[in-house]
Amino acid sequence: MKKRILVTGGTGYIGSHTVVELQNNGYEVIIVDNLSNSRAEVVDSIEKITGIRPAFEKVDCLDYAGMDAVFSKYPGIKGIIHFAASKAVGESVQKPLLYYRNNLVSLINLLELMPKHEVEGIIFSSSCTVYGQPDKLPVTEQAPIKKAESPYGNTKQINEEIIRDTVASGAPIQAILLRYFNPIGAHPTALIGELPNGVPQNLVPYLTQTAMGIREKLSVFGDDYNTPDGSCIRDYIYVVDLAKAHVIAMNRIMDKKQKEKVEVFNIGTGRGVSVLELIHAFESATGVKLNYQITGRRAGDIEQVWADPSFANNELGWKADTTIEETLRSAWNWQVKLREEGIQ
């Protein structure tokens, strides 16, 4: 009997890639998504890749009764992977209350419903933003949690605390917090990838849209940071490598292999790449020249951060091993496919 997993935000960017990997590893997946930043057609694409159509329910995680009904409709859900959240740093500075409501209440609803429906474990989609600007690089899981630089980052910190407090209260819940660094790229089939509604808030979709001529030019926010070329440094991880980490984490919960009721893992490559390096790597990998300009710094951005992923490598047996060039090529292939389909 396949184990049932609920994936919130499962038609989104990271969610859809994770659903593919879960299905490829024998899980039965139920997707919940309100489609605020994704398309229902993603379910068709997941079916094309895997040969299996996941169940899909258009429900907002803020709707407690709606979520309760999903658990009742699909009895025996054993685990949750919670992606559903607003996720743009810049937007969160402009609309903090939207971010606090969406990101906190959705998790609280799930945690309240888990014991009622005998759901054993949850994997929470956290972020390296919880570290703020770290004192030491690369960042280990023991690095102090600093005051968040944005409301988005703060929601991730608070949600981690909500999970810890809930588990500490005696709730029958196991949890794994995966702190992602910067996911980029698309599935090698070019059937799923990152497709934000409206103007992209993240670097790589804006970059590929600029390369395609959809956007006039890419802005690099600041070249006066204390980094080798002055631009911000991040740890860019291939989205499929990231998705595979969720499958391994879910296996760990289902097989009762956790050493603590709440575990934390950094999910990154261990390599810092600057924005300008990324641009040059894209041009080199695709042969496409990019129109970009240096502009002023952006509110909420930290200077540099990259992971020490050795704990995840050793404890989970997981490793990100796709090159930055291969990853950027996959992002470009996805952008080309979108153009062929007339989507942008």
Automatic annotation (TrEMBL):
<protein>
    <recommendedName>
        <fullName>UDP-glucose 4-epimerase</fullName>
        <ecNumber>5.1.3.2</ecNumber>
    </recommendedName>
</protein>
<dbReference type="InterPro" id="IPR005886">
    <property type="entry name" value="UDP_G4E"/>
</dbReference>
<keyword id="KW-0119">Carbohydrate metabolism</keyword>
<dbReference type="Pfam" id="PF16363">
    <property type="entry name" value="GDP_Man_Dehyd"/>
</dbReference>
<feature type="domain" description="NAD(P)-binding">
    <location>
        <begin position="6"/>
        <end position="329"/>
    </location>
</feature>
<comment type="similarity">
    <text>Belongs to the NAD(P)-dependent epimerase/dehydratase family.</text>
</comment>
<dbReference type="InterPro" id="IPR016040">
    <property type="entry name" value="NAD(P)-bd_dom"/>
</dbReference>
<comment type="subunit">
    <text>Homodimer.</text>
</comment>
<dbReference type="InterPro" id="IPR036291">
    <property type="entry name" value="NAD(P)-bd_dom_sf"/>
</dbReference>
<comment type="pathway">
    <text>Carbohydrate metabolism; galactose metabolism.</text>
</comment>
<keyword id="KW-0413">Isomerase</keyword>
<keyword id="KW-0520">NAD</keyword>
<dbReference type="GO" id="GO:0003978">
    <property type="term" value="F:UDP-glucose 4-epimerase activity"/>
</dbReference>
